[in-house]
Amino acid sequence: MMANIIFIGKSGRMLAGACLFISLGITGCTAFTQGSLKDRALYRAVQKDKRFTVNEAPSGAPAQRVASFHIAEKGRQAIQNGQWQEAEGLFEKALSLDRRNPFCYYYLAEIRIQEGKARQALILLKQAEVMFHDHPYWLSEVFEKKGRCFETLALPEKARRAYDNARKHNPWNKIN
């Protein structure tokens, strides 16, 4: 068949190339489509997670959890205003209402990082990691903070792995 294509001329070779491209596309299509579907599903999950924030408790949450989220949101706002001590007190109060509020651990870790207490931050980030297990956007954020902590502790290999994990959970994370 190859000899026939060669003798057909330039347009025949282009046709043969197109057929080859199509046949490769058909055989390789499944792997490409599965990868694309996986990427699209992850992208949708990440975008959905961006809407999962401390300022809104999950729907149907018990009153204590709602109150914990409300107080933790005040703590997040205190961080934005540079009121670190006030924020810490609010997060601790929120945790006393709901020990499973992942945002408390996440933002308390941010306070520890700001204080230069990377080891303490890593402990809090481990808790946040466990509690954010179904939230790729937030897991990416947790791993990014872990990477920063490991850099502070002069552990470059652990930092690299943390950043790789951040990208694994959210390839669109613009890690600094």
Topology (SSEs and partners):
Layout: H1 2-8, H2 10-50, H3 63-80, H4 84-97, H5 102-114, H6 118-131, H7 136-152, H8 156-169
Helix pairs in contact: 1-2, 3-4, 3-5, 4-5, 5-6, 6-7, 7-8
What is the CATH C-level name of the domain at 59-169?
A: Mainly Alpha
Shape: globular
Note the main sheet: none
Radius of gyration: 24 Å
Q: Give the CATH topology of the domain at 59-169.
A: Serine Threonine Protein Phosphatase 5, Tetratricopeptide repeat
CATH architecture title of the domain at 59-169: Alpha Horseshoe
How many beta-strand segments? 0
Order of helices and strands: HHHHHHHH
Strand proportion, as a percent range, falls in: under 5%
Question: What's a quick, concise take on this entry?
Answer:
The chain is an all-alpha fold and 176 residues long.
Descriptive terms for the model:
single chain; 176 residues; Serine Threonine Protein Phosphatase 5, Tetratricopeptide repeat; 8 helices; 78% helix; 0% strand; globular
